[in-house]
Structures are given as C-alpha cells and as structure tokens.
Amino acid sequence: MKIFIASVLLLSISFCVSGQGIAFTYDADGNMESRYVVTLKSSTSKLETSTDIISIESADQKITVYPNPTKGKICIEISPLNLEEENVMRMYDSAGRLLHTKKIRSERTYMEISGNHGIYLLNIQSGTNVSKLKIIKQ
Q1: What is the pTM of this model?
Q2: Tell me, what's the pLDDT at 57?
Q3: Backbone dihedral region of 96: left (phi > 0), alpha (psi from -120 to 50 degrees) or beta?
Q4: I need a labelling partner for 104 at 20 to 30 A (CA). Which of 80, 125, 128, 136 fits?
Q5: What is the layout of strands, in order, in the sheet containing 62-66?
C-alpha cells in the first residue's frame, strides 16, 4: 500500500510540473508488473469548452479518457482494442462501491455518471491490462 501511495504522490507531482508522468502497477507481493507513461493535456472538446484529457500509454495500447472533470458524460477511447479479450469498465464511488459495469465493444465508448458531484474511480480492464483512473464530476 505504501508503494502505491508513493507512486500516486510522485505521479501527481510530475503532472503539476510537466503534465506527464510515469505510473506503475504492482502485484500483491509488491513486485512491479508494468510501467505506463501518463499524459495530462488541456484541450477543447464538443462536450465542454475546456477539458482535460487523461491518456495512458503502454507498449501495446493507448487509453484516453475525457473530459475530466466532467458534467456527467465521459468518453473512453482504447486503441487498439482486441475484441477477442475481455474488455470491461467499472465505475466506483469514492467509498469503493460498484456503481456501474459496462462491456467495451468498440474503440470509442461513452459512459454517463449519474451520481452526485464528487470523485469517482474508473477501472478499465482490457485483456490482462487494468487501468485505474480518478474521474471528477462537477
């Protein structure tokens, strides 16, 4: 748990400085399983006038989630998406309760966050890769 918190803290600091950071995933024994380059960019979108884009890149796949913060609707893009593997996204509230599960069937998927304002956790499972993102609903 200490390793995870340190990774999140270092990732947050690097976002503040450069908009880009490195994220790691660890197994239950604390061994590093994978390394990701995470980029946070500011851009414009038809969903909102000023949005943030979260982009996670590994050696074989890129996951992009926007807008974040959101007013309720987010777009998840996975490229390339292997439809022969299990692709699922799960939305949790800040207390860790599962709110919504949705199968991913195309490279671009939308999800509506119907809860109150606050912080939500989005788990994206694409094959054996699992990405965990913090989504803020305004």
Answers
A1: 0.62
A2: 85
A3: left
A4: 136
A5: 20-26, 32-43, 51-57, 62-66, 73-79, 108-112
